[in-house]
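FORM 12-B: Structure-to-Sequence Request
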């Protein structure tokens, strides 16, 4: 029984370190391991027990990123409703991953990690766009790869706007989803 408790404690400590790394590095990619340890409320020695070097920590963050993106994609239920409805849900789920995805934009080497090689959400995203083209909810002149870039750009714009202005997350998410919805609406 003690082993299970230690495993649970180790898992929580590891998650705390990864979460702190995501939060700290998204705001300052040059932050030291000491700053990350402080944010995680662990000693530097403890951080090094879990992640011996910075590269190990970044690999852990990359793996955690894939897990979180896949969870968000699952929660968005991409196979349900119209293509545009699924895109709206995906946008909302991804918006909540602001620190993680801001870090990925700031540190593109994270997505060169083998954990990202499977193309997070790509097949499902292409399927939802194809469904949107077929059901008339997404402009058929807009290819999936373009819409994926539009989604990422709008999310980044939303996170930047949130950081720079005195507005709520709810207000910014509404702006982002409205902009994405307007961008994909078929033109007469």
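FORM 12-B RESPONSE
SEQUENCE OUT:
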């Amino acid at each position: 029984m003690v082993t299970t408790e230690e495993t649970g404690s180790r898992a929580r400590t590891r998650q705390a370190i990864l979460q702190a790394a995501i939060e700290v590095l998204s705001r300052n990619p040059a932050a030291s391991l000491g700053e990350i340890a402080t944010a995680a409320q662990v000693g530097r020695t403890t951080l090094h027990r879990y992640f011996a070097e910075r590269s190990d920590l970044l690999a852990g963050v990359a793996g955690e990123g894939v897990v979180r993106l896949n969870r968000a994609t699952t929660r968005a239920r991409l196979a349900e409703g119209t293509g545009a409805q699924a895109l709206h849900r995906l946008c909302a789920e991804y918006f909540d991953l602001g620190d993680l995805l801001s870090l990925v934009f700031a540190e593109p080497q994270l997505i060169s990690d083998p954990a990202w090689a499977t193309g997070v959400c790509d097949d499902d995203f292409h399927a939802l766009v194809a469904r949107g083209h077929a059901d008339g909810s997404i402009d058929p002149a807009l290819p999936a790869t373009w819409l994926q870039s539009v989604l990422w750009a709008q999310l980044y714009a939303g996170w930047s706007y949130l950081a720079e202005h005195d507005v709520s997350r709810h207000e910014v998410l509404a702006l982002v989803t409205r902009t994405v919805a307007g961008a994909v609406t078929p033109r007469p």
